[in-house]
Design goal:
The chain is α/β, with parallel strands linked by helices and 100 residues long. The protein has one domain. It is 41% helix and 14% strand. The chain contains three helices and three strands; from the N terminus they run H-E-H-E-E-H. It has a three-stranded parallel sheet with strand order 1-2-3, sandwiched between helices. The chain starts with 16 loop residues before the first helix and ends with a helix. It comes from Legionella birminghamensis. This is Nucleoside 2-deoxyribosyltransferase.
Length: 100
C-alpha cells in the first residue's frame, strides 16, 4: 500500500508540537485515532483531520470513549491483548485497502 505509520512523537520539525501535528496530518492519506481515555488532544487532531479532508479511522477500547458528536461515525472497538490487537490490525488493514 505504500503507507508508513508515523506518530507526532517521532518527529521534531517545528518549535511547537501543534505545528508538527498539523504538518503530519496534512501529509497523511489516512489518520488513525485512538479515542480510548478521551484524550482531548486526540479529539482536536480528529477535528484537524476532518477539516482538511483526511480519512479518519477511529479506534477505541470502549464505545463510551467515543463522544456524542462522533458516534455517528464508524469506529473499531478492540481489546488490549494479543488476540485483540491482532484482530484490530486485520480490521485496520482491511479498512486501509478500501481507502487507498
Amino acid at each position: 500500500m505504500g503507507l508508513k505509520c508515523r506518530c507526532v512523537d517521532d518527529i521534531w520539525e517545528n518549535p511547537a508540537v501543534i505545528q508538527d501535528v498539523v504538518s503530519l496530518i496534512d501529509r497523511s492519506r489516512v489518520v488513525i485515532c485512538d479515542c480510548t481515555t478521551r484524550n482531548p488532544n486526540v479529539f482536536y487532531e480528529i477535528g484537524i483531520a476532518h477539516t482538511i479532508g483526511r480519512e479518519v479511522i477511529l479506534i477505541t477500547q470502549s464505545a463510551e470513549d467515543i463522544p456524542f458528536d462522533l458516534r455517528h461515525l464508524r469506529y473499531v472497538s478492540y481489546l488490549n491483548n494479543g488476540e485483540g490487537l491482532e484482530i484490530l490490525g486485520n480490521i485496520i488493514q482491511a479498512r486501509l485497502e478500501t481507502l487507498v
